[in-house]
C-alpha cells in the first residue's frame, strides 16, 4: 500500500512537473527568447543610429569646409551662364597679365546633359611670359574662378617680341531643373467653348 501511494505520488509529481513545463515554463521560455531577440535587434538599431549620429556630427563639424567647396564648385561651373562675369574675369586676367585682349566671342548656351556648354574663342597679343601668365591666370580657379576647357591654342609671331595667340574652348554652366509645381497651387482653367465644341 505504501509502495502504491509512493508510486502514485511520484506519478502525480511527474505529471505536475510535465504540466508546469508544457503549460508555464515552455511558453515563457519562448517569450523570453522572443524578448531577447527583440533586445538584440534594438541594440543593433541603436548601434546603427549611433553610427549615423556620428556621421552627421562629422558633417556638421565639416560644414564650413563643405560649404566652401560647394561655393568653389559653383564659381567654376555656375548655375547660370553668367556671361558678363565671365567676360570680366577674362578681361581682368588679361589686364593683370599685361596682354591685349582684342576679341572675345562666346556662343549661346547649348543644352547638354547636366550642363550647358558655351563655345569660347578669344585672341590675345603680348610677350611670351605675359601670354604664359594669362594662361596660368585663366586656368587657376583661385585667380579666375570659371571653368573653361581649352581645346585648341595656336600661337604665332607678329612683330618681335610680340606674339599673338588664338584660343578656343568650352565654358560650362549647370542645368538647374525647373521647380516642381505644387499641385495645391495649380489653377485649372476650363475652356467652356472647347467643351461645347467637343
- Taken as a percent bin, the fraction of beta residues is 15-25%
CATH architecture tag of the largest domain: 2-Layer Sandwich
Anisotropy-based shape: rod-shaped
- Written as H for each helix and E for each strand, in order along the chain, the element string is HHHEEEHEEH
Q: How many separate helices?
A: 5
Please state the average pLDDT score. 78
Classification by helices and strands: alpha+beta
> Rg to the nearest angstrom?
39 Å
The CATH superfamily of the largest domain is identified as Ribosomal protein S6/Translation elongation factor EF1B
Number of domains: 2
CATH topology of the largest domain: Alpha-Beta Plaits
Q: Gap between N and C termini, in Å?
A: 105 Å
Q: Share of helix among residues?
A: 40-55%
In total, the number of strands is 5
Amino acid at each position: 500500500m505504501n509502495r502504491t501511494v509512493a508510486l502514485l505520488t511520484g506519478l502525480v509529481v511527474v505529471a505536475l512537473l510535465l504540466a508546469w513545463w508544457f503549460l508555464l515554463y515552455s511558453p515563457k521560455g519562448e517569450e523570453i527568447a522572443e524578448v531577447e531577440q527583440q533586445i538584440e535587434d534594438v541594440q543593433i538599431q541603436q548601434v546603427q543610429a549611433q553610427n549615423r549620429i556620428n556621421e552627421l556630427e562629422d558633417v556638421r563639424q565639416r560644414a564650413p569646409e563643405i560649404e566652401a567647396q560647394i561655393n568653389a564648385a559653383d564659381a567654376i561651373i555656375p548655375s547660370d551662364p553668367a556671361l558678363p562675369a565671365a567676360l570680366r574675369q577674362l578681361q581682368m586676367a588679361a589686364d593683370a597679365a599685361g596682354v591685349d585682349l582684342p576679341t572675345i566671342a562666346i556662343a549661346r548656351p547649348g543644352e547638354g546633359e547636366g550642363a550647358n556648354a558655351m563655345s569660347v574663342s578669344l585672341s590675345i597679343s603680348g610677350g611670351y611670359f605675359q601670354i604664359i601668365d594669362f594662361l596660368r591666370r585663366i586656368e587657376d580657379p583661385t585667380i579666375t574662378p570659371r571653368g573653361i576647357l581649352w581645346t585648341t591654342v595656336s600661337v604665332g609671331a607678329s612683330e618681335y617680341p610680340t606674339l599673338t595667340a588664338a584660343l578656343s574652348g568650352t565654358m560650362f554652366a549647370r542645368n538647374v531643373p525647373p521647380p516642381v509645381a505644387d499641385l495645391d497651387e495649380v489653377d485649372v482653367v476650363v475652356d467652356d467653348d472647347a467643351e461645347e465644341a467637343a
